[in-house]
Design a protein that fits this description.
Layout: E1 3-6, H1 11-21, E2 26-29, E3 49-52, H2 60-63, E4 71-74, H3 84-89, E5 93-95, H4 102-118, H5 120-128, E6 146-150, H6 154-165, E7 169-173, H7 179-185, E8 188-189, H8 192-198, E9 201-204, H9 218-223, E10 229-232, H10 241-249, E11 255-258, H11 265-268, H12 271-274, H13 281-294, E12 299-301, H14 310-328
Parallel strand pairs: 1-2, 1-3, 3-4, 4-5, 6-7, 6-9, 7-8, 9-10, 10-11, 11-12
Helix pairs in contact: 4-6
């Protein structure tokens, strides 16, 4: 019977995982995340399969502690938290769970855009404090404005559908074009520079690659409208944090709604609290910048929860179990390496 260890397990995942593993696998449910300083318990070290969420950081020092590891079953689409080079060199298959959060993430991105445009969180907080100055809450409508969508995969396509419903003009930037988006939602594909210059709002839905790392940098922000709002529910590394902070403070753009940040693990990973020496110069700088961003009145930041709906979680768990069951039968599905 294969040994499977699930890390990052939340309370609401336990019942599903127990019912789908009982009698099939020698399985363990572990609430803790894997980090680059994790010491793996002895009973886990001979696991053939492990499953992790994005809150784990699965580097070489962690992976080499598993003596029989053959599969990492991700409970996420993204895989930049996994050392793929080590996995490739050691014949470890990495599989993801695509298309689980198309609606969840797209709806959340739209909610962030509405929040920043209509100052909903600001109004709520001031109303709680009985400090009501309605002139502080003057917002702007979405209808008739131009939304630029970076990345028109499954999530970006769903965001385009929602944007069309808000009567917005849609610009798209992607490596390939989808005729159904052009026909159904009047998406106009364009180059990145044109999207920057003409968009009133920009929403990022692209996977992170070496080619789009820090694509939103000082140069990009200078090309955007002073009234532009940037939304990011993809990966924090798409945006150069220092450049974003400067652009907002210097009023080169009007605001941002962010569900992801660079070095966000320094906030979410409790190991950084017990071992502050893990903060190198770069992560320390990013953490300070992230804190400064949080203090800006025209920035909304949420803790990487765009995916987090009951429906999406069920789809994640169903797909990861399908991936594991197939692998146990010698079939590789949804591999990313």
């Amino acid at each position: 019977m294969d040994k499977v260890v699930y890390f990052d397990v939340q309370d609401d995942e336990q019942e599903f995982l127990k019912s789908h593993n009982e009698g099939k696998y020698n399985y363990y449910l572990e609430k803790n995340s894997l980090t680059n300083i994790s010491q793996i318990p002895d009973e886990y070290k001979d696991a053939r399969i492990i499953s992790v969420f994005t809150t784990s950081r699965v580097g070489k020092e962690v992976l080499k502690q598993f003596s029989k590891l053959e599969l990492i079953a991700l409970r996420s689409v993204g895989f930049n938290h996994i050392d793929l080079d080590y996995c490739n060199d050691n014949n470890i298959v990495v599989e993801n769970t695509p298309n689980y959060g198309n609606k969840s993430v797209a709806e959340f991105a739209m909610a962030l855009l509405l929040d920043v445009c209509r100052k909903i969180t600001t109004a709520y907080l001031e109303y709680k404090e009985i400090d009501i100055k309605t002139q502080n809450f003057i917002g702007q409508e979405l209808g008739g404005k131009t939304i630029g969508i970076v990345g028109l995969g499954a999530i970006g396509s769903e965001f385009a559908r929602l944007s069309y419903g808000f009567d917005m003009n849609i610009l798209g930037y992607d490596l390939s074009q989808k005729e159904n988006l052009i026909e159904n939602y009047h998406v106009k594909y364009t180059d990145f520079e044109t999207l920057l210059k003409e968009s009133d709002f920009i929403s990022i839905h692209a996977p992170l690659t070496k080619d789009n790392y820090h694509m939103f940098n000082e140069n990009a922000f200078k090309k955007m409208k002073n009234s532009a709002i940037l939304i990011n529910t993809a990966r924090g590394e798409h945006i150069e944090t220092q450049a974003l902070y400067n652009a907002i403070v210097n009023k080169e753009i009007a605001g941002a709604g962010l569900d992801v940040l660079e070095s966000e693990e320094t906030i979410s990973d409790p190991d950084y609290l017990v071992d502050i020496s893990r903060l190198n110069e770069n992560t320390l700088k990013q953490t300070i910048l992230n804190t400064r961003l949080q203090q800006l009145p025209n920035v909304i930041i949420t803790p990487h929860i765009a995916y987090n709906t009951k429906e999406a979680i069920n789809r994640i768990l169903e797909t990861v179990m399908s991936n594991i069951d197939s692998f146990a039968q010698g079939v590789v599905d949804n591999n990313v390496n």
